[in-house]
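Please decode residue identities from the backbone states below.
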């Protein structure tokens, strides 16, 4: 599948997700809507409910970490959230940067942008804005942001080198990012790797962990650190949609797997 076709798949799936609630998303392959199971599996997302600034209307259960946890935000900072969705991380970030700071959310799905703007309007926030744009070609000025965050989004971007190069461009000198994302250790079965629905569901677009970190290095970043890492166990009810019984047994016996990581790095 070509990069533009993959982007179209992601846009279509996340437009659908924008019209679902958190419980529906968590019970359908990380929000992919693929109808894997009627059970409620919180596969990737972390609990935001105790965080200052949390807005339940903006939480669609689509993350794989809490990037604001290690982002080192300060009052007055200018923050960019990539793939901001309904605004969940933006609202938490705003609580950290305060009235003197500014938060920008970037997303390329109209339905998500509409939902995020509606959530911000209800709260009468004036220092949050949501912008339509592609992470590979951000419609944003260079050297603008103190902090960039993102949550379970960059794995969906076909050209991750372009994405991290763009992150480097829009950060101020001395600025940094904190990104939660999905990476792989070892090779996933081909059926999982190539399935477009799983691509939109956070798995098959992921890079190998070392390749992911190398992509960040090549973009020019320094002080690259993995702040948190956890293995994701996909239930058999999901895997059986892509693997037959023998393939499932082989996959479970291997040391290969899917991990969520929270990574920080600095533009120096």
């Amino acid at each position: 599948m070509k990069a533009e076709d993959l982007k179209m798949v992601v846009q279509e799936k996340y437009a659908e997700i924008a019209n679902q609630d958190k419980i529906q998303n968590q019970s359908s392959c990380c929000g992919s809507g693929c109808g894997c199971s009627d059970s409620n599996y919180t596969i990737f997302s972390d609990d935001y409910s105790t965080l200052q600034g949390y807005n339940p209307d903006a939480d669609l259960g689509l993350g794989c970490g809490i990037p604001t946890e290690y982002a080192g935000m300060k009052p007055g900072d200018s923050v960019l959230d990539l793939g901001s969705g309904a605004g969940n991380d933006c609202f938490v970030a705003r609580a950290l940067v305060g009235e003197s700071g500014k938060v920008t959310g970037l997303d390329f799905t109209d339905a998500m942008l509409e939902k995020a703007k509606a959530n911000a309007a209800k709260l009468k926030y004036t220092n949050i804005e949501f912008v339509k744009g592609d992470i590979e070609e951000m419609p944003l000025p260079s050297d603008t942001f103190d902090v960039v965050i993102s949550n379970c989004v960059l794995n969906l971007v076909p050209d991750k080198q372009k994405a991290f190069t763009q992150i480097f461009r829009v950060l101020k000198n001395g600025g940094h990012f904190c990104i939660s994302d999905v990476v792989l250790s070892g090779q996933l079965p081909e059926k999982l790797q190539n399935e477009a629905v799983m691509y939109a569901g956070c798995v098959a677009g992921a890079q190998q962990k070392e390749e992911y970190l190398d992509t960040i290095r090549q973009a020019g970043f320094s002080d690259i650190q993995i702040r948190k890492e956890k293995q994701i166990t996909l239930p058999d009810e999901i895997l059986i949609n892509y693997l037959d019984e023998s393939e499932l047994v082989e996959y479970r016996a291997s040391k290969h797997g899917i991990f969520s990581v929270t990574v920080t790095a600095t533009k120096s």
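Observation: The beta strands are 78-82, 102-107, 128-132, 145-151, 171-185, 222-232, 257-266.
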